[in-house]
Amino acid sequence: MDKINAKVFLSVVENGSFRKAAEELDYTQAGVSYIISAMEEATGLNLFVREHGGVRLSREGKMILPHMQQLESWEHRFMQTVNELNGLENGVVRVQIFDSISIHWVPNIIRRFQEDFPNIQIELISEEDPIRTEQMVMNGEVDCGFFWSKMNSRMDVFPLREESLMAAVGKDHPLAGEKYFPISALGEYPFISMRFDANTAVGAIFQNKGITPNTVFSMDNDFAALSMVSKGLGYGIFPELLLRDNPYGVICMQLDEPQRRTISIGTRSLKTCSRACAK
């Protein structure tokens, strides 16, 4: 079907809006609407439910979504292969990142990479959920990704660095003057969690110690959580790298039983990934 456009379909899904998808793709809104309508006509399916505030996938659209993700991945790999067969040092590498490395690692990595490979474009996709990150790498939505939890054994993964997990408290917190935050006290004070903690090394601390946190807020953004910690609304547990040079004035301390996590980079397979990704 020559009217199938996986890239436009997935952009509309991600943005929930023809207008926002058009802005992302540098299309007109009418152009995006036409492409989606043409796809619906070609398939005989209503792929999206049009609503006043935007669009959402229909039941049929949800069933097609994984196939569209796979199609877009195949198209990406096809173009990478074409470039390599032509002997060109160009192409696109899509990389999944998360907050702490996006600030302290990624800018320098990109600068050095572009000095050596100026014609290779890097697309950065931010994702904090480790389960979703593995899915993105395994189904080809990204070429490689950074991880901080146990990865799928089928992936090629390379450890980069170990870092401590540290408690962060406001200046008026009862433990602010202590050298260590006792793990035994983790359930005694209001806790500001991150939404995906259950799947990370932070959640493992509570699980392994049999402690139920007194969670008062669950946040999507590390820096919003740090801001709330600074206002005395609770304590948080964050990776050492994220707390480096933090502007919120929170007090950071080691746990009395040191806890660490490993940051790794991985791809589905070094044998099948593009040369641009391998570099």
Short descriptors:
single chain, about 280 residues, alpha/beta, Arc Repressor Mutant, subunit A, D-Maltodextrin-Binding Protein, domain 2, two-stranded antiparallel ribbon, 11 helices, about 40% helix
In short:
The chain has helices at 6-15, 18-25, 29-43, 59-85, 99-104, 106-116, 130-138, 201-209, 222-230, 240-243, 275-278; strands spanning 48-51, 54-57, 91-97, 120-126, 144-147, 156-169, 180-181, 190-194, 214-219, 236-239, 251-267. Helices cover 40% and strands 27% of the residues.
Structural notes for this entry:
The chain is of the alpha/beta class. Among the domains are: 1-62, Winged helix-like DNA-binding domain superfamily/Winged helix DNA-binding domain (Arc Repressor Mutant, subunit A, Orthogonal Bundle), CATH 1.10.10.10; 162-260, D-Maltodextrin-Binding Protein, domain 2. Helices cover 40% and strands 27% of the residues. It has eleven helices and eleven strands. It has helices spanning 6-15, 18-25, 29-43, 59-85, 99-104, 106-116, 130-138, 201-209, 222-230, 240-243, 275-278; strands spanning 48-51, 54-57, 91-97, 120-126, 144-147, 156-169, 180-181, 190-194, 214-219, 236-239, 251-267. The strands form three sheets. Strands 3, 4, 5, 6, 7, 10 and 11 form a seven-stranded mixed sheet that branches. Strands 1-2 form a two-stranded antiparallel ribbon. Strands 8-9 form a two-stranded parallel sheet. Helix 8 links the parallel strand 8 and strand 9. Helix 1 packs across helix 2 and helix 2 (18-25) packs across helix 3 (29-43). The longest helix has 27 residues, at 59-85. The protein is globular. The two termini are 35 Å apart.
